[in-house]
Amino acid sequence: MSESDISLAGQVALVTGSTRGLGRAIANRLATAGADVVLHDQDAEQAAKFGEAAGAEDVVTEIAAHGTRTALVFGDVGDADAVERFVGQARAAMGRIDILVNCAGGDIGASGGKPEPNDCVEIPVEDVRAMFDRNVIGTIYCCRQVAPEMMARQSGRIVNVASSAGHLGVSHGAIYAVAKAGIVHYTRCLAAQMKPHGVNVNCVSPGPTVTARFLATRTVREERLNNPVRLMRFGEPDDIARAVQFLSSDLARYVNGQVLVVDGGGILW
Q1: β pairing state of 259-262 and 156-161
Q2: How far is 33 from 249, CA to CA, in rounded Å?
Q3: pLDDT score recorded for residue 226
Q4: Residue 63: what are its φ and ψ, rounded to 5°?
Q5: Does domain 3-208+235-268 have CATH number 3.40.50.720?
Q6: CB 62 within 8 A of CB 68
Q7: Burial of 211 (0-12, 13-18, 19+ CB in 10 A)
Q8: Which neighbouring-strand residues pair with 71?
């Protein structure tokens, strides 16, 4: 393996949901590898929501410290017009998009918090719609805006972020799991369509990962946070970011339509 295999120098990446959490870690890793990065979130307040940063501009400064170009765009991924607008802004700022990482999403209902109840039968319909808009519909909208330019260039990488929950039957958080399973299969279908155009489309399915939102929205056992056995702990954001870098790099040049579950083997338990 050579340094050029993992370098993303000269590439432009758009990472949705990237002013905090997993998206922020992914943006940092891609910038470290040399990519110019367009940061995105629903609005400027998301970066500070769980105390990760004072604001979105602070995250821009953090990413820019790697020495690559940065830009910042806002918009709701569940709104087709907003996606068209912020992808256009990203393209105007950077000239093109070589790598699209669809990280925006989450187990978040219509009111902005976790649905209650959060099951298959009693979850409010408005929360079902919000969950699908925030996850699978948002991923589809972003891919629809970016894929045509990649097809025209005959090159590009798309990495969708699903969840290990999308590979299991669950009773709590079920609609989120269904939406993430939709992302998994949409990835496979899009990969089949993009294959003749030389565009790689793959998916990362994280297991439970310790972000500020993760810690703020659930009770966690100490042994899963600091277990000295590496594969018995919760994931760290950079564990997911490393997988995204791999799928964005030439190391994965012949990898297409695949789903990489990054959970320490959690779905084996």
Answers
A1: unpaired
A2: 9
A3: 80
A4: -70, -40
A5: yes
A6: no
A7: buried
A8: 38
From 141, 176, 186, 254, active-site residue: 176
CA dist 179 and 133 (Å) reads: 9
254 is catalytic: no
- Mean pLDDT by runs of 10 across the 269 residues of the chain is 77 98 98 98 93 95 98 98 98 98 96 94 97 98 98 98 96 96 98 98 96 82 78 93 98 98 90
How far out from the chain centre does Cα 218 lie? 21
Q: Which two tokens stand for residue 267?
A: 């779905």
For the chain, give the number of residues: 269
Q: From the CB of residue 4, how many other CB atoms can be counted at a distance below 10 Å? A: 9
How far apart CA 108 and CA 15 sit, in angstroms, is 19
The token pair at 191 is 């990969």
pLDDT confidence of residue 4: 64
The residues with which 222 forms a beta bridge, in sequence order, are none
Q: β-strand 259-262 against 199-206: which pairing, if any?
A: parallel
Task: Show the tokens assigned to 75.
Answer: 């918009």
State the pTM of this model.
Answer: 0.95
Q: Where are the domains of the chain?
A: 3-208+235-268
Are the CB atoms for 202 and 260 separated by under 8 Å? yes
Please identify which residue in the block is written with the tokens 């703020």.
216
Cβ–Cβ < 8 Å for 266, 165? no
